[in-house]
Amino acid sequence: MLRNQIDKIRLLFHKDRESYFCFYRILGFFPRNIRYYKEAVLHKSILVRGASGRPLNNERLEFLGDAILDAIIADVVYKHFEGKREGFLTNTRSKIVQRETLNKLAVAIGLDKLVRFTTRPATHNSSMYGNAFEAFLGAIYLDQGYDRCKEFVEKKILKEYIDLEKMSRKETNFKSKLIEWSQKHKHTLSFELIEQRMDKDRNPVFHTEVKIESLSAGTGRGYSKKESQQNAAHMALRKIKNDEDFVRQLLEAKALRCTPPAPAEAEAADASDETADASEEILAATEEILAAAPAATDDEGNPAATA
């Protein structure tokens, strides 16, 4: 606390004091080396070069921050969920560090307002802010060390914005859950791309339909095939849970699919197959006879003319 007060007084006369105070509002402490933080908010679309001529952007810091964040979250989750198995811990960690969550966290702490870029990616499909968030953690690590970085994540991020218990129960992979359900109940399942178009900003939009027992169970749109499938699967799961008539239709369709054909139908099918086989045998025999027969000739031994 005392150091922050001293730094605050000292920075009042610094030519770059505005940058220091912008980062202070997010960090809760003043940077020692502000260069790391400035680089953390440089999107790769910014064409800036350092003294050595190397392009400056936040990709290297993002790589470092990604590893640091994984280690911190693994530590926190391991200690918080005592006795839970490895699969549960891995799944919970992945929900916290996934790009969608990091994008939201970057906006929540105001980091998005500091990111510099020349072309804004489509916000629906952008990982720009999540990448900057990881790069920001990389900057804290280089500037203040691992313990300070861990303290920032625990007190500033997890305590204020993440409910670990709620996050651990959050279902995110709806497609996998639907596939698991269909396999368990022995239902046929398919995902079909029914439309692909460009939106007004020239971004691809995918429209997917999911079918169970050849019945439409849900549709979903997204800016990738995976996103559209997830949305379609999410709709299908809600329909299975809430629509009793649809579930009844599924059971009827499954029963019909699994019912063997009636004897008369089976005999008719067999007779049709036998007729087809006989026709093929007759055709093959005819071709053999024609191939084996000598060619017709006239009185002088020349090939006879055909009508």
Put simply, the count of helices is: 13
Largest sheet: 3 strands, antiparallel
Q: Whole-Å distance between the termini?
A: 112 Å
CATH topology of the largest domain: Ribonuclease iii, N-terminal Endonuclease Domain, Chain A
Strand content: 5-15%
Total separate domains? 2
CATH C-level category of the largest domain: Mainly Alpha
Structural class: mainly alpha
Which stretches are poorly predicted, pLDDT < 50 over at least 5 residues? 288-307
Number of strands: 5
User: Strand order across the biggest sheet?
Assistant: 3-4-5
Describe the structure.
The protein has 307 residues and is mostly helical. The protein has two domains: 2-169, Ribonuclease iii, N-terminal Endonuclease Domain, Chain A (Orthogonal Bundle), CATH 1.10.1520.10; 174-258, Double Stranded RNA Binding Domain. 60% of the residues lie in helices and 10% in strands. It contains 13 helices and five strands. It has helices at residues 2-11, 17-27, 34-40, 59-80, 86-97, 99-108, 128-144, 146-161, 164-169, 174-184, 225-242, 244-258, 263-292, and strands spanning 48-49, 55-56, 189-198, 204-212, 215-222. The strands form two sheets. It has a three-stranded antiparallel beta sheet with strand order 3-4-5. It has a two-stranded antiparallel ribbon with strand order 1-2. The longest helix has 30 residues, at 263-292. The radius of gyration is 33 Å and the shape is elongated. 23% of the residues are buried. Residues 288-307 have low confidence and may be disordered.
